[in-house]
Task: structure prediction
Amino acid sequence: MRNKLFYASLACGLLLSATSCEDQKFNDTYVDADRIHVDTLSAEMQKVRDYVPQYALVAHRGSTFWVPEETESAYRWAREMGADYLECDMQVSKDGVVLALHDTDLKRTTNIEEVFGERFPEQLRREYYEIIYKGIGDAHKKFIDSLIAQDIKYFVPNYPSSYTYYELMHLDAGKWFNEDNQEVARKGFETQCQYISTLEDLIMYSKGYRLKRYTTDITPGANNLVWGNATAAAGHRVVLSMATTGKKITNPVNYYTVDAIVDYECDYIRDEKWGGNIPGIYIEFKEPWLNPAGFEQMVYDELAEVENMNIMESNVPENTPFYVNRSERPQIGSNPILSENGRVINVGETRGKVILQTFSLQSLVQVSKVFKGEVPMCFLLWLGTGATDLTYDDPQGYASFINLGVEYKAHYIGPCIAGAPNNYPELNYPWQHNLIHRAKMKNHPYSFDTYDQMAKYFGQYNWGTEGGSRYEAPYVDAFFTNHTDMSLQYLYNFDWRDKEIAPYPVLDPNDVLTKLGYTK
Amino acid sequence: MAITIMKKYILLPAVLVASMLSANVAKAQEDVNPLLKYINKDNGLEASIGGRMFADLAYYHTEWTPMNSGAAITDARVHAALKYGKWYLYADFGFGKGEFSQKNLFVRYNFKESLKGIHSVKAGYYNEPSSMSMMTSSYNYHFITRPTVAQALAPGRALGATYKFYSRHFFADQGIFAQLKYNDQQEGYQGFSLSGRWLWKPVNNNALTVQFGTGLRYQRINGGEVYQDGVYKTNMHVTSNMQTYVDETTAFLSCDLPWAKDAFTLNPEFLVKSDRFFARGEFTWKKVWKDRDDQTLFESQLGGQQSWTDLSGWRGGNKLRPTILNGGYVELGYLIFGKSYTYDDEYGLLKGMGDKNALEIVARYSCTDLTDITKGDRFLIGNHKFYPDKDGDGIGDIVDYPYSSSIDGGKMHAVTLGLNYSFNQYIKIMGEYQYANLSNVYFPDDENFHQLQLRVMFAF
Result:
């Protein structure tokens, strides 16, 4: 009996030794990516997802390469070049103006250091209060003094929300670009003062407008010209009125002071260079701590108020085409920049006219509550250890963020891509793109700067083939680019965009800038 | 007649003491009766050297995260022991995986051997007396590894000194130990622990032993690292393997308790042993208190727009709370062939199976809970963060900041069935099957673990 047990145990050992060799395992990303569970978009959400054209080109901040980012010049250029979307980041001024501005610190993209330094702009703030709180007498003076005293007490320099838009209009958002990018610098970026854009500005640019500016024919100081009443010179933008709205916001930066929201009636004119393109806008909600509570609702309301951009509040026909003939744009500019084939971008007139985006998990949740998944929404991914970052980019970690996107009504995932010059971390491996598709979402990676990147993610190179036949290029459904010209050319060259349907051929970027008046 | 009775009263305890001492001399720390001995009766000197080796073979089946099946030398040691009068010196060193590691190194002195029991003091580097499982030599264990709860929550070896008393019915072993055996903390004084194990054996004879007791341990953690702005940060790392050594991964059951400062461990235990059967078990409950220099850390983050503006707000965003971890196990054994199970009075432990051609079947259930998750918290594996339930709906709310201070080191239930065979006390083989059920937010797709193990070991 003992001998039998002994031999039985020996046999078990031999069996173990055999089985342990035949099924050797190791972490295989492709295997894990295949078997990981991802939630999927509902049919209703998929329908909203498809409001956006396939391989849509998103002009990242207009462009960070050719023009000062997120300014009038950037958006006019991208519009005329034929981008499908104009992209921006949203912040808020102290008086509640929604800005199109990336950096949370004004130093890099404006001349704030020479205009304000880190001083509280008391003189301008008094001017501002005198405009919006008209009055006379000691009581009025005391009231203004009390406002100024409080503002001084809680002032934090360099943050956009520390300044009223009235003050922000005193900053130049174009000069820095010429100083930092001499090879593409243009005098026109300085002579046509580039302002910090507002969301309203962006919408108007997308619709073929430009800022109305003072000319020698308009006399500063006229009664209806609020902005620059005393100081504006020719070339500065026109603001027709400034008035409090009765609404308040809690300032996120100035130690939670409560500020009055002011309505600026800015003036725009039809852009004489507009060739008929109406791109959509792709607007980013930043982290909630940079914006006041209820910011998502503010944006919702503004989209509803300006040019019917909120599709939840307007009736946009379902099958409006993304590209149309120029003949459908009778109102094009007097001296337009035209495409040769007579086609124009029409994305801005479709249900996909606005795409929302955010990196912030909290904003993702808030946006889902306000927009309810009825407006296309992209959940952006960045690899890192910050508050909003994806930190573990293995299949489980990546899928968890996709699932978060599905849960909170995003339609797209926007991963960062590798490659010079930004050298972002890679979050758009073919298996990751595949996971996004398995969730019935679409993939909007950012930001393309080079031909190499286009070739890599559109499958011209053999990148991703190690995953076998399960992954098929392109690993992109729409994309953010800083080089609309290069990216468009690539799409046409490799037949990702129909030359008969969309505006063709691609215009020369320098030529367009010159035609737009931004002379060298 | 009176003399006879008196002799009886004197002789019986004396025989008991002598028998305990003789066992003590022969097997004080060694796994087996040493084969290589030098005895000098004239000088009362006895020296021995020995060694042991374990070779394990394992096959693992997991659902998501692979474990590496294969074979490994899981232990290799040499030891030397010296008895001189009432003094006993012992040293052993591991060289498994080609790496030197310090194991036991101590001296013991039996200063009183009375009719009521034996008193001794011991100093050096050895296991803190707290857990029955951890006190048992791996060679004499009836399973291939100790249970996860003992690995995770019971103390191991430390540098210290103890006083021990034991008799037929009582056992008390207690002492003080240093936190770091090489005093290699960055700054300041290192910590210490007070450990003890106390047993009562209402029945203790050759046929049957019934034992109840508890271990208690207080631990003061001082050794740590400089975190920022001169703030000294302590940490307690709690971890266990999956009750296997071929793949020693501790990822599935592991957590850090940053800012751990004081810890108290309660460790009740029981043991029942007859000739052919044993049952024993322990439950371990550990509470860890934390301490952090909030004022300095708060002040060091001031100066930015995103700074917390008051200490209470900072504390609200950087919560710190005590953590409670626990677990337990029950082990059963039945000796199919062999003379009998035996008991070690000196250590209050079941001895290893060492009879010639003995065969036993064993079973174990163990549970280890290293979780401290606030109710309603939601975990996101993409960033390894817990999100607190702010709106009270029972589901954590996704925000950018702040996060919850929940901890999940894993919760595991495991059932082990084993068959052990000893050729003699020097050579044994062990075979085990184990099923483990894991719950760990960091391993959401790893729930069921199966493993087969085989061990060949010898000692001399």
